[in-house]
Amino acid sequence: MSAENLAGKWTRKSGRTLFDSITCVVFLFLDFLDAVLCVVFKLVDEFFEGNACTPCYCGKAGDKNGENKETEMLSESLYGRKYMLRNMGFLGFARKWRIYRKKKDDRDGSVNEGLMVNRWSDCGCQSCVSWMKKEYDQKLHVVVKNLPQVGRGDEAAENVIFLHGFLSSSSFWTETIFNNLSESVKDHYRLFAVDLLGFGRSPKPNDCMYTLLDHVERIDKSVISPFHLNSFHLVAHSMGCLIALALAAKYPKFVKSVTLVAPPYLPCAKDGATTSLMALNTFAGKTLWPPLAFGKSVMSWYEHVGRCFCVLFCRNHRIWEMILKLFTLRRELNFMELDLTRHTHHSAWHNMHNVICGAAKLMDKYLEILNKSRSVKVCIIHGDHDMEVPLDCSNNMKKKFPELVELNMIENVDHTSVILGRVREFAKSLQHIWASS
């Protein structure tokens, strides 16, 4: 080996070592900061709310109380996240404080009644708390377009349910695809764009665990049952893909087609906990670069640090919107800019872990149900430059279920531009899928 090659190899190795060392130090500090913020938020929650009714996940899995549907559906990534300082004695005060407060609450008989609660750290504007009105029945917010013409009857209409992705809302579909479908769609299809639980104008109760089953049950209650849908198509993006597959597996005889855009799919390991933790590391692994990936890792691994950011940005989203309008000289902001901050940390945290990570171990089961039904068509659309959800996710699904899955890989587009950068083409492909199902 020449001296020049040897020097280059040594430089690269030294650079990686330095970068790994800096990464270790940064996340070690975040470990400590999150443990301290755990106690801080407990005290502040109790000061403003009287009783901190929403549990955090700083302890061990053994701290869970009882076994019911909610605890069974909790993702292993909530308690299985490895902290360098978690098991060290001098940071045990966070868990001890929580146990002490629980015992005190049990003695005092303190309980949290009902779901109609808005946390002090969440925004209280009319849009964000619209679900808390007395006449509201806790159903999801649904935008319905193209109702059948009078006299045609519900049987004459094809139904399509649209599910958005993480930190988004029904606007992702209504502001893009709905406006680019052909005129013939208005006569043959009625469209339902759903605000998933915790996002948009749908409920954001602070003691709901936001599991995959919660989403399926709410969609059933808000769309399928009230509109008496006996057949429908599903279109979903990112996180919504997992919910769409669970819904399709529940109603395999009702679903005509499932269109998945960048599905966060991982082949299930023998141990479900391994699959959930693998999903966390795949979609939000600890890294300092690029900055967007670092932000995802902080918000996904550190519950209380992430809540600090949400208190600053999400709770005060109206102020940030006003500042953004002032600097950009725009009267109206893009729907994606609005959706990004109009959620709560509690909803984002549980959807990230219990849906994206926790549901990963269930996807093969749902796909097997659809594969056996032989009546559902699953179409995947994925950009080859997607940095959020690796293309391997779609390739693995196609490889494992070759007869069920149809994969359409789009060149030179990423996670967002696979739809927003080619809206008309995407709308045409949807119409083709529906017509051929």
From TrEMBL:
Xref: Pfam families: Abhydrolase_1
Domain AB hydrolase-1, chain residue ranges per copy: 160-419
Highest taxon, organism lineage: Eukaryota
Stored Gene3D superfamilies: alpha/beta hydrolase (3.40.50.1820)
SUPFAM superfamilies: alpha/beta-Hydrolases
Stored PANTHER family: HYDROLASE, LYSOPHOSPHOLIPASE BODYGUARD 4-RELATED
Name assigned to this protein: AB hydrolase-1 domain-containing protein
Protein source organism: Gossypium tomentosum (Hawaiian cotton)
